[in-house]
Amino acid sequence: MKRFFIAFFLLLLVGCAVQSRPQGGPKDETPPTVVKMTPALGALNFTGSKAEIVFDEYIQGTKLRGNITTSPPLVGLEFEIIGKKLKLNWEEGQLLENTTYRISMGDEIGDLNENNKYTNLEVVWSTGSFIDSMQVGGQVDKTGKGAFEDLTIWLLPAGADTVGLPKFSATPSKDGSFYLSYLPVDTFDFLVFEDINFNKQWDEGVETFGFLKGIPTTSDSSLITIPYSTERFEFPELDTAAIDSVANFVDTTSSENLGLISFTLPPSSDSVILYAHRAGDVLIDLCTGAGTDTLKTEEQYYAPGKYEVFGYVDLNGNGLWDNPSWTLNTSAEPLISGQSFEVKANWELEQPITLPNSNEDEIEP
């Protein structure tokens, strides 16, 4: 009998071991919900140095570090995730009087299992008796290489002689749009740049930038466009030996092997530094001064090949391409690019050139 019970017990264990796990339900796609926030969203007269957000489920924030933004800045801001809680703390005694503060975590907090994101998580409070409610949004108008997300936007006091750390800042989204809320009624200068050395400062002369000055935080300024470009005027590298070879070739060869070219340039309100070149060995000088008449150059023979047009509008007439200047409140001098033409042997060509500062309608090819 004893052996029978032992055998029966073993069969029960085996039966339990081979039982399959119950099938799971539908995939969890619901983000966590905020149960409690301290200070409460929009709290007034808060002067503490800690904040806490409690969710209805366990959370994670694997990319939270480096993606928390504060306006105005908070010195020594740290965070800790414990179970369902996100705890924030900063150095005491630094909060400004009658100021609205915002800590933004963006979309970096998600639930522990599926990482469903809580969208636009932020803590907002005021050290005074009201919450600033102005807002500004817009677009970075970027030309050249680089990702929008690598840029930083600063709001600086309008008319400031020097650029210090801002009270308000933002990072553009992937499409270059940005939005800032909880701003005071004021006028700001906007600066956009790429912090290439990650020192959280703008290094003029080293980091490319763009700006827009004198923007008030009123309803009619809710959508603005900030120009920004990484493009620079660079003279192409030319092979001296190749240039000499082409020159000798042009001097001695039959015109049947060359193309006869003239150029038409529209009237220009400023001097234009302009060239056309065949990669590495041929450079054509098309520089022209300001004028009110269309300019047509004399016909000349050139070696066959594809030529690229490049240059800039010399707004101040100094013969040099000038970067944007925050101090002088001047933009970079307009670059001329994106035009090309092909020279063919025993062909004649009248090539129109388009200028960004032309005084007349664009000339059609």
Report on this structure.
The chain has 365 residues and is mainly beta. The chain has 3 domains: 34-126, Immunoglobulin-like (Sandwich); 134-229, Sandwich (Immunoglobulin-like), CATH 2.60.40.10; 240-352, Carboxypeptidase-like, regulatory domain (Immunoglobulin-like, Sandwich). Helix content is 8%, strand content 38%. The chain is built from 2 helices and 24 strands. It has helices spanning 2-17, 240-252, and strands at 34-38, 50-55, 59-60, 69-71, 78-82, 85-89, 100-106, 110-111, 121-126, 134-143, 151-157, 168-170, 177-183, 187-194, 209-216, 223-229, 259-265, 271-278, 282-285, 295-296, 300-302, 305-314, 335-343, 348-352. It has a 4-stranded antiparallel β-sheet, with no helix packed on it. Strands 12-11-14-15 form a 4-stranded antiparallel β-sheet, with no helix packed on it. A hairpin with a 3-residue loop joins strand 18 (271-278) and strand 19 (282-285). It is elongated and about 85 Å long. The protein starts with a helix and ends in a 13-residue tail after the last strand.
Q: Helix content range of the residues, please?
A: under 10%
The CATH superfamily of the largest domain bears the name Carboxypeptidase-like, regulatory domain
What's the CATH first level of the largest domain?
A: Mainly Beta
N-to-C SSE string, H for helix and E for strand: HEEEEEEEEEEEEEEEEHEEEEEEEE
Rg calc: 32 Å
**What's the shape?**
elongated
In percent, how much strand structure appears in the residues?
35-45%
CATH architecture verdict of the largest domain: Sandwich
End-to-end separation in angstroms reads 107 Å
* CATH structural fold name of the largest domain: Immunoglobulin-like
Query: Count the helices. How many?
Result: 2
